[in-house]
Amino acid sequence: MTMRLSTQHMRAHASVLAIVGVAMAALPIGAAAQEAVTAEPSATQQSAQAADATPANLPVTDIVVTGTRLGSNFNAPTPVTSIGAERLDALGITNVGEALNQLPSFRASSGPAAQANLGGNIGARLLDLRGLDPQRTLVLVDGKRFVPSTVQGSVDTNLIPSSLLRTVDVVTGGASAAYGSDAVAGVVNFVLDRKKEGLDGEFAAGMSQRGDDGNLFASLSGGMSLGDRVHVIGAVEYEKLEGLGTCTSRSWCDSQTLILGNTPGAGGLPANLIIGGVNTSTMTPGGLINRSYNAAGQAIGTTATDPLRGTKFLADGTPGQFQYGTLVGPLFMLGGEGQGRNGFISALRLKVPLERVSTYGALTAELTDDVTLTADVSYGRVKGTVDGAIFRDFNGTLLGRIKRDNPFIPAAVASAMDANGVASFILGKAAFDLGPGRATSTTETYRGVLGVEGKLSDKWTVNGFYQYGRTNFTQRATNLVNQANLLKAVDAVQSGGQTICRVNADAIASNDDAACVPFNPFGEGQYSQASVGYITGNGLQHTVNEQHVAGIDLRGELFDLPAGPVTVAVGAEYRRDTVDGTADPISAANGFYSLNGSALSGGVTVKEVFGEIAVPVLRDSAVGYALDLNGAARRTHYSTTGSVTTWKAGLVYEPVEGVRLRGTRSRDIRAPNIFELFGPQTLRSIGLSDPLNGGLQTNPFVITGANPDLSVEKADSWTGGFVIAPRHGLLQRLRLSVDYYNIKVADAIGALGAQTLVNRCAQGATNFCSQITRDANNQILQVRDVILNSNALKTSGYDIEFQYRQPLGSWGELNAQLIANITKELTTVDALGAVDRAGQTGVRTGTIPGVPDYVLDGVLTWTVGKFQLTGHGRYIPSGIYWTNFVGPDQDGYAVTAPNSVDNNNVPSRFYLDMTARVNVDAGNGRTFQLFATVNNLLDRDPPAMPGPSGGTNQILFDPVGRAFKIGARFHFGS
274, 122, 33: which is closest to 952 by C-alpha? Predict the structure, then answer.
């Protein structure tokens, strides 16, 4: 049975009607307007008009139309959402990846604010269309693949300059037949302004109201003709982001709102409490004794009668009494001591620092009247820094049991041990004194494309290209806790008047370690620097991605029908992707507590043939203004998983001029990438709740990694919608589009998340239980969250876009745009059933994030003379925190149930940004623009709730608060 509130479905359906109703209600405004003004064209229309107006001395290249290979004279049936440079300028955005992740159809699942304490491509802005994960979104530049930035095959849009863009087109459905693998969710195509003229520049700087999140941006771009047949363009961009501080720098995070476990029904309270003021109950920065053991290794008494439990160690190492709060569990408690020193969240950076440089150059040359050469070169560099998890241990897994003969034990504690027959104890410690490990990653990408287009006749052209791309990824990590060395260094003894490691004092010569230096775990900073040098080390990972792509296609008109020519495109492509990586030996064995690097080597060869056809059926007929049919097919062979076929069928029907109906049906695929097939397994620890032990909170290790036996995942997609875009009359300033999409992915590749595995096992999906290792007391030690073909994915919903321009006479004009996405379903299906995460706006660590029921994004610009004022609003409705929890206002709630929670609701948020621009014409083709932006004008804090990046869901909500940016732009040239 699908786990989902019926009221959420009702909200989603009501949202469709409400948004369409608001858009349709605006129609009379246009009808009543007294002045007929040409409607503001869409970004793609602007591009086409610009092409028509191109000076005669510029080389002519085809307009790029995303979603088809048939050229610019074909109306593609696939829905396309386009944003242009104007949106970036109007909102004061300097990074196109940031602009795209604001669109309602994207889930901002990666980026500087969503890094948490994980390494890898730090701060990468990956595109996650439809919430189906970035590896299912294909990224193109001018219709060609961009070299992968990550071993998962995803592209970091930080590496693509924003200043050369004409538009960015987003396509859903039917893209695999046109472009190949990875386009399950759709395609994002960065279309360059290859006819750019003059010189443009921009400089901007800003910071938050609280004095952090400093940012700096500078760019220079331009284009020029060299004679009558050659045109060149180029750009260089630099951006530096300082990021935010730790969780304690924002009150909503410093509230320490976490999930506190409770015995279901005890005290009239549910099993889980999402509440502020949660501190750790079994670890402190100086150390906390949690359990005592006798010489036989048996626990002494109970937790209530243990003679040493609750003994803490102050910063100087002296013992004291720990102040417990209420609802004390194995990890957390309500109240008590420890505010601001919670080892799970206090040290998390809310937004990581980032520095990027991106450059691009392109040449278009008419070698003859019929042969055109294009050449593109680009280089990008992104550098980010992240702090790993604070070392923490509460049950002796990492520190081991502290034995009575350890000379670092304070005398008072040693006497208490002797008096009570204590031979050893477990010390819980969150090592704030050691500080987190820190990783700096650098991603450098090189790409070159050489293409030739030849006109065989006035109806046929042939295109060929070769592309080479290379990404060098290096991660250097410091201050990493070596788990094996820590265990040896903590286990110290007195021998010959000196404190030494036990391994060097026992009778076993084979375990001797001459480098071992004893480490004092009591207090903060009471250890020697030599011991820190022994228990910590540096990690290194270096990975090289290389991609070779070659392709050729032939397109043209087969014959004429009464409604127009039948056009076709046929072609073939070859692609070779390889990854070769190395890592330090400790990381390769998952020997560090966090930020382990990984070694990876493998390759995939892809050979493809494809074809596409468009058939015009009607033009200006009695039964319709226009009807076009479209079909495409592609046969692909992978060296790893064999052959597969993708296809698409679509139609566009205009019953009357200006009203267009469109629909597609397609089979799309994604082959497992190199990382999923050949990658290593990595290790980290996270906090989990164990439903088989009454929601007991624990801190096990989680292993993630590859699977060489993966197969291709297949998606069946269909879209259907309409566009209202009157070409004449009073309504020509209006454009409204509504499209429905439905995507079903079989044999979906991915990791479920450790918490999800634990929960599904407890609910009866026994095939997942083998991935969980428990000790003799049935407590979780380890979870294997490896990649599997274990799921099916389903998503469906609506995309809505409304544009309107209203002249105001002497008061200028208003331009309005509303973009909305309504998600009816985002479902993962496994052996136990379906879980629908549409409407889940919280995200729990170790689980799969969801998406809101709907998102509204609106832009309103007032232009009067040389002045422009833009307001940008974004609304995220209320949702639920986690689909596995059931709150008091949900069906099936029972206070005694292990999945009960006191509050499973996440409140809504509305964000308002404002940008003012002033244009100055200096004459002689020189123009300047000054602008100022205030983001989050209302200074709305995000909802305080547990999350992997701190105290909220930073995928959706803004962690910064009110922020300011000022800048200037210039253009020199015609």
Answer: 274
The DSSP annotation for 468-482 comes to EEEEEEEEEEEEEEB
CA–CA gap between residue 41 and residue 82 (Å, rounded): 11
Q: What is the dihedral of CA 487, 344, 477, 385, to 10 degrees?
A: -170
Q: β-pairing, 186-192 with 137-141?
A: parallel
pLDDT band at 71 (very low <50, low <70, confident <90, very high): low
Percent of the chain surpassing pLDDT 70: 92
pLDDT tens for residues 415-428?
999 999 999 999 99
**Residue 170: left (phi > 0), alpha (psi -120 to 50), or beta?**
beta
Vertex 788, ends 784 and 789: CA angle to 5°?
160
CA distance 540 to 419: 48
Buried b (16+ CB within 10 A) or exposed e, 435-453: ebbbbbbbbbbebbbbbbb
Report the mean per-residue pLDDT for the chain: 89
Whole-model pTM: value is: 0.88
DSSP state of 106: B
259 with 944: CB under 8 angstroms? no
Closest CA to 293 of 384, 193, 420: 420
Residue 706 near residue 679 (C-beta atoms within 8 A): yes
Q: Which residue spans within 16-136 are E strands per DSSP?
A: 80-84
For the stretch 793-838, pLDDT in tens is: 999 999 999 999 999 999 999 999 999 999 999 999 876 778 999 9
**CB proximity list for 842: less than 8 A, separation 6 or greater:** 850, 879, 880, 881, 882, 906, 945, 946, 947, 953
Task: Give the residue carrying structure tokens 């040239």.
Answer: 973
CA 113 to chain CA centroid, nearest Å: 10
In eight-state DSSP terms, residue 36 is -
Which stretches does DSSP call E strand in 482-563?
492-495, 498-501, 536-561
| CA triple 658-662-668, angle to 5 deg | 150
pLDDT > 50? residue 37: no
Separation of alpha carbons 216 and 354, rounded Å: 11
- Return the ∠ at Cα 504 (arms to 503 and 506), rounded to 5°: 70
Burial of 543 (0-12, 13-18, 19+ CB in 10 A): buried
Token digits of residue 548:
């070779």
* Inter-residue contact 494 to 505 (CB < 8 Å): no
Structure token digits, residue 71 = 């050229």
Torsion region of 89: left, alpha or beta (phi above 0 gives left; psi -120 to 50 gives alpha):
alpha
Q: How confident is the model at residue 172 (pLDDT cuts 50, 70, 90)?
A: confident
Tens digit of pLDDT for each residue in 556-576?
999 999 999 999 999 999 999
CA distances, 322 to each of 256, 289, 314, 516 (Å): 19, 9, 10, 32
Residue 373 corresponds to which tokens in the numbers above? 């050469």
The residues with which 81 forms a beta bridge, in sequence order, are 170
Q: Of the candidates 554, 525, 541, which has an alpha carbon nearest to the alpha carbon of residue 582?
A: 541
Residues whose CB is less than 8 angstroms from the CB of residue 200 and which lie 6 or more positions away in sequence, other chains included: 163, 219, 220, 221, 222, 969, 970, 971, 972
What is the per-residue DSSP string for 808-819?
-GGG-EEEEEEE
Beta-strand ranges (E) seen in 482-531 are: 492-495, 498-501
How many of the other CB atoms lie within 10 Å of CB of 455?
Answer: 15
Q: How far is CA 920 from the centre of its chain?
A: 39
Assign residue 337 a region (left: φ > 0; alpha: ψ between -120 and 50; beta: otherwise). beta
Contact between residue 81 and residue 103 where contact means Cβ atoms under 8 Å apart: yes
Q: Contact 260/273 with Cβ under 8 angstroms?
A: yes
CA 415 to the chain's CA centroid: 54
- Higher-confidence position of 816 and 709: 816
Q: How far apart are CA 449 and CA 462, in angstroms?
A: 17
How many whole angstroms separate alpha carbon 608 and alpha carbon 183? 15
Give the separation between CA 614 and CA 224, rounded to whole angstroms.
Answer: 36
